[in-house]
Design a protein that fits this description.
mainly alpha; Endonuclease Iii, domain 2; Endonuclease III, domain 1; 2 domains; 12 helices; DNA N-glycosylase activity; hydrolase; DNA binding
């Protein structure tokens, strides 16, 4: 596990590398964000951003989405993996927002997680981005980076990773640092080809050190 000074270095480095890190899912309001995040499960943000403009043009309000046929939603998002199940969830969560929340996306965790297709990660993103509530959503990038750097244990599940990150970093930094972890993992510390040789955190990265040593042995 990293020391307090090392954790501060991680935070400072993330801020320096990606000062403008942000949610890359295109959206205009909390409802569009909920839908976009729900669609992004096991799909890239870039792919989601290709299908949501057409989806929101066809069904511009939560009421319109709730009234849509599932087949219509499917046709507009079929390029995304698991699109049939996601289409059902999008319609169902829209209906729930209309029927139980007066057409307004709820701003509390319990109500968000009660929406079909919305888990803790999606709720965290919506709370943070749409409602500016401190949250540390853990996606594959956040999980990978935090484990490679030794902030979390390899065996930790997603909830344990989230709890550890919230414990290690100040509450007021969670939301922005969450995006910076994502950018770091998406554009630098990639799953298959991480930029270890040019990484300012290599000296504390257990995965990076192993990779570099392996390269030296093979050469």
């Amino acid at each position: 596990m990293l020391t307090r000074a090392q954790l501060q270095e991680v935070s400072d480095t993330m801020k320096q590398m990606f000062p403008d890190a942000h949610c890359e899912l295109t959206h205009q309001n909390p409802f569009e964000l909920v839908v976009a995040v729900a669609l992004s499960a096991q799909a890239t943000d870039a792919l989601v951003n290709k299908v949501t403009p057409g989806l929101f043009e066809a069904f511009p309000t939560v009421e319109a989405m709730a009234a849509a046929d599932v087949s219509e939603i499917e046709a507009l998002i079929k390029r995304i993996g698991l699109y049939r199940n996601k289409a059902k969830n999008v319609k169902a969560l829209s209906e729930k927002i209309v029927n139980e929340h007066g057409g307004i996306v709820p701003s509390d965790r319990a109500s968000l997680e009660a929406l079909p297709g919305v888990g803790r990660k999606t709720a965290n993103v919506v709370l943070s981005v749409a409602f500016h509530e401190p949250a540390f959503a853990v996606d594959t990038h956040v999980e990978r980076v935090s484990k490679r750097l030794g902030i979390c244990r390899w065996k930790d599940n997603v909830r344990q990773v989230e709890d550890t990150l919230m414990k290690k970093f100040p509450r007021e930094e969670w939301s922005q640092l969450h995006h910076q972890f994502i950018f770091f993992g998406r554009y630098h510390c990639k799953a298959q080809r991480p930029g270890c040789e040019a990484c300012p955190l290599l000296h504390m990265c257990r995965e990076g050190k192993k990779r570099m040593k392996s390269q030296q042995v093979t050469t």
